[in-house]
Every structure is written in C-alpha cells, then in structure tokens.
C-alpha cells in the first residue's frame, strides 16, 4: 500500500491508533466532518495523534498512528460513525495547513530489531503477564481478537465481547510477528494513555517489549492493591 506524503491529523485526548488495530470514532465537529468527506474522496487515510498532555492548545504528539477508513456511516444530522484500521506508525513532520483542519507531512516508521532469543524470551514473559492480568477478571475485547485477521468483517456479528483465558493465550501463540503481538496486547490491555503512547513511540522491538512488560506488571500490581484495599 502506497502511503501519501501528507495526511489530515485528528488530535484527540488519550487516543492511540496502533498498526492493525480497529478504532471506532464518532465525527461531529464541522472541521472533522470536512476532513472525513475529503478523505473519503481521496486516499481514505487520516492520522490520529494524542494531544500532548498539559497543553491547553491543540498540539499533537509527534508520533501518531496512520489509519485507513474501513467503514463510514453518515447520520441524518451530518455526524458520522467510522472505523479506522491502523496501518502504520508515523512521525508527524511539517504542518502543511491548519484550517479548516490540520494537515501534516508524515514519515512512516519501521520497526527495528529482529526476532531473536532475547525477543523470544520477552515474548514469553508478556504471555505470562497477559495470563495473570486476565485471571484478574479483565475482559479481552472481541475486536482485539479479530483485528489482525484481514479476512474478518469489521462487524462483530453478535460475537461474545470476551474470550476465555485459554482462547486468548491460544490466539496470541498463533501470531508469528512479535511486532504485531506487542501492539495487540498494548491496544487491548494497557489502560493508561501515556503507557500506550510510549509503546507507540517505541520503534525498537526489544525496547517495546521491555516497556510493555513494565506496564503490564504495574497494571497487575495496581489491580491487586485496589482489590486488597
């Protein structure tokens, strides 16, 4: 798939779009309605960037997710519901225009680091932590189980919104690409926006796994502390 050199940018609080992840959005602001219409009439792509924390003005994080509009349903009042499928990590570069919506040049980011014995060990550690986190009662959403399978429809078709621990572990074990596996787990199980953004910005595979292990461990400890209080 050929990526455009510049794309519209949606700056949203606490939003992270990982490669291959499905992100549902409700479009209601006039500028974003125009952005959606223009995207549908061209390459059907736009970028979702997390608002930089602590800033009052709209300033997107430099590393964002590039998404392809997989489905868009317009409502009578002019609003729309759409589903974006993440296709790449990108670095936002020069701003081409600000109005009626932000458009920036992008530079695709490619994961560095190969699958090796170290990455295999980190992958197994993540699998163990996923099991512990799900044993605490956290549901693994149905869209996370489906978004890596390109033959699946976006429509959930009435499937259960959760999977058993055994099903999740079996599914993760089928993923041959550790890059995708790390993103999938981060998308589905990390609740802190800053943690998800850190994973998105981690281009080096080993670093991404080490961050993920640290964040999952913290999630498990927080849950235990909350349950014990």
Can you lay out the helices and strands and say which pair or pack?
Layout lengths: L5 E7 L9 E6 L2 H11 L4 E6 L12 E12 L5 E18 L5 E7 L7 H19 L6 H5 L18 H9 L4 H12 L3 H9 L3 H24 L1
Parallel strand pairs: 1-3
Antiparallel strand pairs: 1-6, 2-5, 3-4, 4-5, 5-6
Helix pairs in contact: 2-4, 2-5, 2-7, 5-7, 6-7
Helical residue percent band: 25-40%
Uncertain spans, ≥5 residues at pLDDT below 50? 145-161
Strand order of the largest sheet: 1-3-4-5-6
Report the count of strand segments: 6
Largest sheet: 5 strands, mixed, barrel
What is the N-to-C succession of helices and strands? EEHEEEEHHHHHH
| N- to C-terminal distance | 50 Å
* Structural classification: alpha+beta
Mean pLDDT: 86
- Percent strand equals 15-25%
CATH class of the largest domain: Mainly Alpha
For this structure, the CATH topology of the largest domain is Methane Monooxygenase Hydroxylase, Chain G, domain 1
Give the CA-based shape. Answer: globular
């Amino acid at each position: 798939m050929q990526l455009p050199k510049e794309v519209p940018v949606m700056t949203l609080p606490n939003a992270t779009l990982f490669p291959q992840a499905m992100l549902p959005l409700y479009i209601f602001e006039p500028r974003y309605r125009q952005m959606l219409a223009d995207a549908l009439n061209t390459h059907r792509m736009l970028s979702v960037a997390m608002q930089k924390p602590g800033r009052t003005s709209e300033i997107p994080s430099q590393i964002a997710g590039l998404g392809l509009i997989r489905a868009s349903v317009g409502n009578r009042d002019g609003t729309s519901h759409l589903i974006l499928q993440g296709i790449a990590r990108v670095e936002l570069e020069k701003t081409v225009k600000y109005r009626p919506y932000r458009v920036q040049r992008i530079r695709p980011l490619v994961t560095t680091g190969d699958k090796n014995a170290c990455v295999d060990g980190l992958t197994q550690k993540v699998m163990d932590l996923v099991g512990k986190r799900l044993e605490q009662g956290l549901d693994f959403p149905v869209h996370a189980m489906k978004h890596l399978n390109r033959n699946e429809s976006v429509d959930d078709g009435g499937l259960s919104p959760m999977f058993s621990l055994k099903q999740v572990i079996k599914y993760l074990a089928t993923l041959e690409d550790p890059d995708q596996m790390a993103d999938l787990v981060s998308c589905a199980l990390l609740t802190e926006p800053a943690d998800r953004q850190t994973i998105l910005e981690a281009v080096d595979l080993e670093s991404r796994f080490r961050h993920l292990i640290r964040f999952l461990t913290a999630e498990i400890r927080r849950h235990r502390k909350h349950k014990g209080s």
